[in-house]
Every structure is written in structure tokens, then in C-alpha cells.
């Protein structure tokens, strides 16, 4: 009773007297449910629950300079492919923020990234089951124009718990031109940060003869220049000795560097990027493993194009932050409208090349990152080792509108090499040649049909175990969309592993998807067998995990 | 029982009250393509409508939507004075490819980079593309998720109604 009285006392005066400064509630809801079936062909058993469900509801209340947010997360139980540590219901995410005279204070859960994320990246990606928000206090302050300071302290989220390690960090960024009132053509920005983890000694698992540092720091500095059509960015990061991971006694410091240069004007752009990383993983707890990427709080952006077509994305790379050297080049070109080559509407051509490899291997033939303990000391040379290729991709992608009705969304050709041993822990290298054609035909104002044809020819080398061979693939998709007050889509797709050397594994991954969107409410129903990857049907793109059976998804925004 | 009724009533009042006004934009600063910090609450269009499109370089339907709007954007601007703000949700893996994509395609939109999804979260944005229409007072009057061929015509009808 006291609570209700209290609420009434607060609410009514607020309603009566605060008309001009009213509050606001907004948020979003998302549900993903999957009904599983046994599938002998892919050796998949349905879970005991048969149906699994991941959902969340965000509610954000804002009033003037004050924000209060909560997220209710429900995993009953978590979908296959997500960690089983996600189990049950909880308002695990909650925070309050206020903003006054350029000072912003957050208490509770928040996400933060310093620079490109080399030293700290706290983020969420619900589709991938990632959420390492920090629970603690964050302060952002702009003491003068052109100077931005952030500092934080807290514990990093791991599924439904928080890390033992305490994370402290501060970042400063200076926009020189603003700060010093320079009237230069070049816009200069400098930044630097330090992040440190404290973990009590007694919590550390390991050989007692070793002395583990309780405090481990990483720091980085960065420069960002904008000059007319040019942009340049470089960040260098360093990590103090951090014998991390279960049973590791490697006391070597780590380091990483990332650099990119972009030239960009109307109709033509080039982008170059390179990075090198040596023993640079940074965890929220020293001695815990990382199966789903949990406990890791830094990030080195992955090289390689982010593909959205299933076969182009069949073998996706991921950064090997302990030992990696790589670069990529992107060229974007638009052939002018009305030219004989460009056609009436112009033609877009994107070229991409990326090459990622490991660092030079050490004298014992195994380690390819810096190593230092009582017996060994090793530092790899700066350049990568071309004999230790992780991933490469050479691809061309063309987009062209033929006329008002017909459009080539993509014609793409790609040559990829993918080191299965590095990314999946098995063996072998897959060299694939992939072709994609994606076209839309607009029947009339309301109806359109889109189809995709994709093929992948594989050459597989150095496989120790032939059961991992997959061979060639093809894929086809037809999607019909209706654009009315309610938007509808119907899609049928089939991925076919026709080239699998094992005839029993020449499988069809066939699926049907139906959905509608009315304003902000979106409903989608699917049936069939799907492979893990990014899935773009019905006008949105989402990351999905492998599944067989019915799926239901609902999303809304308010 | 009484307690529950009072509690429900309070929540109802709070929600109704909050809803009697249109949604406004959150207080969040993002980087633009020249590296300047822009607070989304400070975007201006002289009392004309504003459209905020959430997109990513890897999202084909998003690119399609922005390309299709680009074809008619000049007409839209002449007739309604509408301004489009394209918020990229690319993370640090591809945020440096946003400017090349925008310039190469010749999009005349104001572009902001939401590298760690701050604005995306504050506005409850799910899978891209996501489109918000704001009236002259910068209040959200229409939200749409996804892109199907022809959605831009529907959006334009809504923009015209604001004039």
C-alpha cells in the first residue's frame, strides 16, 4: 500500500505540474522461436524441449536530461547454437543516465568502444548471442569544445553473470582544429586511452611457481586526419605482460596496429587497410576459456569483405588476434549515367582484394606470436608469413539497373582461399570460385519478384580427414514481395551440396519463408533446413544459426 | 487487490501520459563523414520533414532503398523540402567504407556513423533497414522496418501529408 501511495504522490503532481517537460517511453521487442526436428541426414537431434525461444524487451524512459533503461531477456531455453549459459529470465540490463552541462553520467549497464576497439570494445549482437556490456559507472565529459573525455569502471558481462576481473579505463580525444581554433584544410584528431584489468591473485589458476600480475594494462594511441577527399586513420596498441588463458605462462607483451587510407569522390573511391596483431587478446578474466567469444573485451576489425550472399559467406574469416598480418584494397567505381557503358542509370562496380596470414613461426615450429617464459623468448618479425595463409578473397561485384522494371542487384565473381585449420580447428584449405546473380523484376507498383542463383566450385587441399570435405555447392532463391498497406514476402530457397564426395551428404537445405510487415510490426514464419550464416530475405538481413524445423520471429518498436 | 488496482492505474497513467506526446529523438552524438560530432537532437531542416534511415554497407535491401530514394530525392526535396539522414550502423570493420559507398553512389544524404550502435539501441532499431519519419517539430510520426520494392512511394505519401 505504501508503494502505491508513493507512486500516486509522485505521479499526480508530475502530471499536473510538469506539462511542458513530459517524459517519454520507447523501446522494442524481439522474439525468435524455433521448433526443432530430428534430422538424421545432418546427424542433428532435436533438443528435449522441442521448442526453444530467445526474446527480449527494451524499455527506455526519458525525461529531460534523464534516461532510465531496462532490458528483460528471456531464454527458455536458449536456441541451439547459443551458449547454454543463457538460460532463464532476467532484467539483466538496466541503467540510468543523466546529462548536464556536457557531463554525462551512466550508472548500470553500458556499451563502450575506445578507438576502433583494439583496447576495449563492449558491444552486443543479439543475433550472434554476444553481449559484453559493462556494469558499473561511466562518465563522459567535454570540458571545452574539441576535447572529449570518457572514463569507466565496472565488470564485464558474461552471459548471465559478470566477470571477476574489474575493468577500468579512460579515453581522451582531441579535435585540434576546434580546440585551438585553427582554420586548416586538414582536420586533425588525436586520441589515446588506457584500459586495465584487476584480478585478485588468489583467484588465478595456475602453477604456484609463477607470479601472476594482478593488474594488467593495455593502452593505445590514434590519429585521424580528414583532408578534402582523403581520410587517414592509424591506431597502435600495446599490452603489458598477461599470462592469459588456462595454463598459459607466456609473459610476453602484446601489440597491434591498424591503419587505413581512403580516397573518395563522387563516382570513384579507393580504400586501403592493413593490420598486424601479435599476442593481443584481452580478456575480462585471465583464466577462463572462450568458446563463444565470451570473456573477450577487445577487438581488431576483421579484414575481408562482409558478404551477404550465402555462398560468398559460406567460409567467413574471423580475426586471429594472437597472430595475424593482413591487408585489403577496395575500389568503388560508378560508370556514369547515360554513357554507352554505364547505361541509362549508371553501373556500379566494386573490386575487393584481401589477404590475411599468420605471423612467422617460431624456432620450435609452433608458436607464431611473441613468447616469453623461463625457458623461451621469441618475437616474430613484422611481416606476415605468406606460407601460412589464413584467408584471401578477390572479388568483383557489379550492380546495374536495366530499366524501370528490371534491375541486376548483383553479378559477382569471387576467388576465395580459406584455411579451415585456422578458423575451425580441423584441417585443410578450401579454394573456391563463387558466382552470384541476383535480379529484381518489378511487375507493377505493388508487386516484385527477385531471384538469386549462386554456385561454388571448391578445390580442397591438405585435408587429414576426408569426412570434412564438402565439395561444390549451388543455391537458388525466389522471393515475391507485395507492397501494400501491409508488406508481404514469400521466399523459397534451396542450397544444394551436390559436389560432396560422400554421396550421403549431398544434401538439400530447402526452406520456405513467409512474412509480413505492417509499420513497425514484423512477423516471419519459416520452415526447412538452414545453414548458419547471414540470411537476407523479406527485405531485412539477420544472422542465423543452423536449424531444421519451424521458426517464428516477431519484432516491434514503440 | 486495492494495491494492484492503484499500481495498475499508476502505470496506466504514466504510460498514457508519456504517450500523449509524439516520440522525440534521444540525446546522442555521432560522428559525420568529416569527423565532426553531431548530436542527433541538433539536426535541422527549417521545420520541414526529416527521414532517418538506418543502413549498413553489407545490407543489400538498405542499399536498394537508399539507391531508389536517391533516384527521386531531388523531386522530393523540391516538393516537400524533406531531408534524409542516413545513419550507418557499420562497426569498425566497415565504417571507413561508408564514405566511399556514399560518394561513389552519389548519395546527397547527410550521413552519420553509429559505430557501436548507440543510436540504434536508443531508438529500438532491430534488423536493418529501419526508417523513421519526423515532422517539422522533429517528432517521430512514422516508423517502418524492412524494405520491399515500392516502400519509398509509401514513405513519400506520408511525407506529403506532413506538408
Spans of chain B of at least 5 consecutive residues whose pLDDT stays below 50 are: none
User: What is the radius of gyration of chain B?
Assistant: 18 Å
Question: How can the largest sheet of chain B be summarized?
Answer: 8 strands, mixed
Derived from helix and strand composition plus strand pairing, the structural class of chain B reads alpha+beta
Distance between the termini of chain B: 49 Å
Arithmetic mean of pLDDT of chain B: 89
Choose one word for the global shape of chain B: globular
Please name the two chains that share the biggest interface, counting residues whose Cβ lies under 8 Å from a Cβ on the partner chain: A-B, 90 and 68 residues
- Provide the spatial order of strands within the biggest beta sheet of chain B: 1-8-7-4-5-6-2-3
Oligomer designation: heterodimer
Condensed summary:
By secondary structure, chain A is mainly beta. Chain A contains three helices and 30 strands. In chain A, a hairpin with a 2-residue loop joins strand 12 and strand 13.
What topology emerges from the helices and strands here?
The complex is a heterodimer of chains A (558) and B (163).
Chain A (H helix, E strand, L loop, with lengths): L1 H16 L6 E13 L14 E13 L2 E10 L12 E13 L2 E8 L13 E2 L4 E2 L2 E11 L2 E12 L2 E15 H4 L6 E13 L16 E13 L2 E10 L14 E12 L2 E11 L44 E13 L11 E13 L11 E2 L4 E2 L5 E18 L4 E14 H5 L4 E14 L4 E15 L11 E11 L3 E10 L11 E11 L2 E10 L2 E5 L2 E5 L2 E11 L1
Antiparallel strand pairs in A: 1-2, 1-30, 2-3, 3-4, 4-5, 5-8, 6-7, 8-9, 9-10, 10-11, 11-12, 12-13, 13-14, 14-15, 15-16, 16-17, 17-20, 18-19, 20-21, 21-22, 22-23, 23-24, 24-25, 25-26, 26-27, 27-30, 28-29
Chain B lengths: L1 H18 L3 E2 L4 E4 L4 E3 L10 E6 L4 H21 L2 E6 L9 H8 L4 E4 L4 H5 L7 E5 L4 E7 L5 H11 L2
Parallel strand pairs in B: 4-5, 5-6
Antiparallel strand pairs in B: 1-8, 2-3, 2-6, 4-7, 7-8
